[in-house]
């Protein structure tokens, strides 16, 4: 530990290091530099005081007691893959890293649950469940690197939410260390349970502002039977592609993956790899079905998209399927090769997906920003990527203006500011517009009640 | 309005009546007598002050402002079908009936949602959704009489939770009048959304102790395709029947209905109607499958139950299916013909369903109480019905002792006090045993923050 690089106020970091059971404290410049920010690439003002690597709930308890005593702001941190600035740490903050709490404490096939520590990598749990014939369905884009703790803090979504729900729908209970160091367990080991308030739901998605999640009981599901089936449908325009999910829903078709990729993004991917798609349309819809009726459902979707003038491929061949789905997987990487990016995340009511895509095109033209959009189409959760020059020292004003337009229009269409990335610091300025004054005050009331000193991830969300 | 029958303190009820926009105030003895209690049949001490029939959110706002000004406790009330005493009103309370707020404000097929007022009967929404090709899946036993507001307040479950989830899983957003009369909207019109804390989840299941739900945006689903298929399996003993759901889960079979009926209950139903079951076993498992693969899944379940020594019927014939499922539907009525009843509701981890059934048999013997048990078997949510003599003026001590034993054992097995009926007044005394001191204190902190005067349904839950 190098106290010499310690920046911030005069809190006795050495005292904290003595109190930890298995954890470690670091004040090294490189550690702090890496842990100041996340994948939103926003820069916090100031510099963190130190970083704690917790190895146990006891470490987190000691850290929170110390932080409360010395009024040090605490920023809980997983893998740092967040996209909204929720893990930014500046101004004398303590970075509380949970990434070394990596135990899967239990995995029960009969109770269909796993008890995990927050540092477990999302894909590692998915693999462990798969090996036991089960499924952990939540599949964020960063699953190979993100931690479950981070997924819980942001209520992460991903590719399979339309069928299997977001992180919240897979959480049975939590272990949480409160701002004053008390440890509470919430929820149940059972799927159902209504004893008391839904504290589990309150902590999930609260972005570290109400407490530190040190454990979670997660619901696992039966692995879908049989081979999967994939549909790729090229639509003449984005509006037609946006209508298809509504028709699928009317027909009772429920894909486990349903992604829309717009023309700008398709161009970017095409510059990166050859595309062998069923047609040359402006918008691509990719779907995957799992379960016993996967092939039948995919065939029905194919017919339905055909009636909407799409050129369609339906396949159960694994290699062809992988090739088709890779178009979506490479979308962000392909866009990133074109410049610096700001990846957005908001949701509109399903019926307004087409309208929103049209609005995004107008916004791009109005502010002279290239925008490539992909969407979790079943839930109308859009991810427009705003591109700008790598040489720009900061995010340019026209990019912020375009983002601002998008958020306001999404809200006007009945949507919400964020579907899965969170508010963090990135969207704080718009939150009151969505919630209204009274609901914002209720947030503040709850925050003050659970964190009266205001040390839990201050400046985030509210 | 008859002020002469007004009982309680000296709050000016006439002033309240003047402030209501469309609502009505009643102090009639018969109205109050009917609204003092619910289907838990517990008797509150004292007598309510008056009853308000709200017709609009504005009425609820005026009522809460008046109640806050005069420190009058408010008991929100739907149809009064609750089974835990959450709607008991005594001691000068104001009964706030939402049952006249019955509008379905919107039903959108493309956005797959309904915006409802709290007085809508559950089955009425299910029917309205069905007519538009959609499904509202939450199906509590009292669906033909219960209101959605009551379902939301208790986070009601029912028969289809194993596949489709409890009420919470179908709520996108709420309109809530707070204890001070402010109106907040929570949640979204979209399925996904992580802007701010999950206030929706916090109010759902809070049993009227945090605010009054005056509106809800509910998620609708696609109606399951094709004919349903039913399985009836008679097992030689309850333990074997309890193992079957675990095997079903391992095989990836997900029925939309999966009920276990024990020997005592089967005897009661048999005394009431002839039973034409596939065998004479001690325990019956009834299942229904919906969706494109219903027939195939039912056949696979039939085979699987056969390997567990069950005598099995599998059918897609609607009449035969109705006849089989009626065994479960008539279970409680049949038990009620045998005496006065206390219907219990708790959950154990799936793997402990058999153990809990064994424990219930021991408890029945130990306390000399006849207990008939049905269970939502997929979620291991048990409903033991404790029987006692109609002549008893109160619930006898041995019945309470048996209930106490059941709760303690359910908790010891890793379960929870209530799966869908709620805590109300019935289970308050056990809540701290389940939550622990610190989590109970967090409940109290949140309650005090949102209801500092303590007028929202006091004496319930906490």
From TrEMBL, chains A, B:
Question: What PROSITE patterns does this protein map onto?
Answer: FAD_PCMH (PS51387)
Q: Which cofactor does it need?
A: FAD
Pfam families in the record, alphabetically? FAD-oxidase_C, FAD_binding_4
Q: Which residues form the FAD-binding PCMH-type domain?
A: 44-223
Q: Which key words tag this protein in UniProt? A: FAD, Flavoprotein, Oxidoreductase
Keyword Transport assigned to the entry: answer is: no
Superkingdom, taxonomy of origin: Bacteria
Q: Which InterPro entries match?
A: FAD-bd_oxidored_4_C, FAD-bd_PCMH, FAD-bd_PCMH-like_sf, FAD-bd_PCMH_sub2, FAD-linked_Oxase-like_C, FAD-linked_OxidoTrans_Type4, Oxid_FAD_bind_N, Vanillyl_alc_oxidase_C-sub2
Asked whether the UniProt record includes Oxidoreductase among its keywords, one would answer: yes
Could you tell me what this protein is called? FAD-linked oxidase
> What is this organism's lineage?
Bacteria, Bacillati, Actinomycetota, Actinomycetes, Kitasatosporales
């Amino acid at each position: 530990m190098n106290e010499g690089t310690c920046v911030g106020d005069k809190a006795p970091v050495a005292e904290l290091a003595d109190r930890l059971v298995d954890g470690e404290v670091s004040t090294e410049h490189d550690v702090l530099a890496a842990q100041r920010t996340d994948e939103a690439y926003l820069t916090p003002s100031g510099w963190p005081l130190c970083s704690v690597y917790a190895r146990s709930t006891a470490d987190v308890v000691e850290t929170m007691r110390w932080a409360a005593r010395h009024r040090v702001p605490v920023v809980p941190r997983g893998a740092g893959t967040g996209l909204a600035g929720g893990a930014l740490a500046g101004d004398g903050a303590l970075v509380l890293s949970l990434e070394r709490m990596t135990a899967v404490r239990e995995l029960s096939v009969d109770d269909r649950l796993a008890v995990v520590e927050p540092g477990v990598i999302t894909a590692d749990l998915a693999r462990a469940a798969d090996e036991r014939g089960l499924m952990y369905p939540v599949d964020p884009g960063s699953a190979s690197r993100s931690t479950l703790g981070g997924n819980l803090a942001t209520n992460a979504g991903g590719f399979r939410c339309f069928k299997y729900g977001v992180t919240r729908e897979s959480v049975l209970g939590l272990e949480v260390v409160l701002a004053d160091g008390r440890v509470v367990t919430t929820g149940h080991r059972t799927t159902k349970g209504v004893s008391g308030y839904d504290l589990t739901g309150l902590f999930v998605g609260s972005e570290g502002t109400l407490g530190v999640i040190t454990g979670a009981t997660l619901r696992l599901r039966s692995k879908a039977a049989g081979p999967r089936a994939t549909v790729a449908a090229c639509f003449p325009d984005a509006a037609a592609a946006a209508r298809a999910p509504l028709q699928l829903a009317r027909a009772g078709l429920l894909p486990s993956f349903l992604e829309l990729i717009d023309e700008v993004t398709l161009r970017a991917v095409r510059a990166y790899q050859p595309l062998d798609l069923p047609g040359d349309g402006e918008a691509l819809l990719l779907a995957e079905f799992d379960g016993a009726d996967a092939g039948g459902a995919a065939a029905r979707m194919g017919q339905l998209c055909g009636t909407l003038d799409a050129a369609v491929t339906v396949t159960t061949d694994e290699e062809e399927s992988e090739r088709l789905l890779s178009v979506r997987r490479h979308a962000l990487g392909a866009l990133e090769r074109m410049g610096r990016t700001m990846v957005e995340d908001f949701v509109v009511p399903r019926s307004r997906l087409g309208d929103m895509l049209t609005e995004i095109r107008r916004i791009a033209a109005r502010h002279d920003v290239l925008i490539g959009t992909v969407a979790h189409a079943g839930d109308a959760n859009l991810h427009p990527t705003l591109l700008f020059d790598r040489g720009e020292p900061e995010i340019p004003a026209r990019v912020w203006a375009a983002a601002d337009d998008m958020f306001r229009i999404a809200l006007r269409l009945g949507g919400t500011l964020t579907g899965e990335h969170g508010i963090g610091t990135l969207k704080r300025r718009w939150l009151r517009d969505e919630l209204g004054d009274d609901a914002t005050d209720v947030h503040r009331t709850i925050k003050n009640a659970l964190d009266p000193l205001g040390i839990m991830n201050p400046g985030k969300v509210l």
